[in-house]
Amino acid sequence: MELKVLKKTDTEIIIEIIGEDDTLGNLIAKEAMKHPKVVYASYRIPHPLQNRLEIIINVEPGANISEVLLEITENIRKFLREFKKEVEEKL
Description:
Enzyme class: transferase
CATH topology: Gyrase A, domain 2
Keywords: Cytoplasm, DNA-directed RNA polymerase, Nucleotidyltransferase, Transcription, Transferase
Subunit structure: Part of the RNA polymerase complex.
CATH superfamily: RNA polymerase, RBP11-like subunit
Subcellular location: Cytoplasm
Number of helices: 2
Catalytic activity: RNA(n) + a ribonucleoside 5'-triphosphate = RNA(n+1) + diphosphate
Distance between the termini: 30 Å
């Protein structure tokens, strides 16, 4: 996976991720929309033959977009740790 910030302003960030697809894009966008400071979040695959996706996240004015993004990724990590624990217990 290769990550590149295509655009970053006070209220918007667009991140390109090479080597990933809809699975990761959907996970990040859905988790971002749960965050109280996120106004809009989505992802797109610019071209179906290219192995890359773009994540778009807009936050409320005054929110620190870097902190919001770190909170989103930490929430995903927490969910996956809990999921892994449940799977290990059931198997």
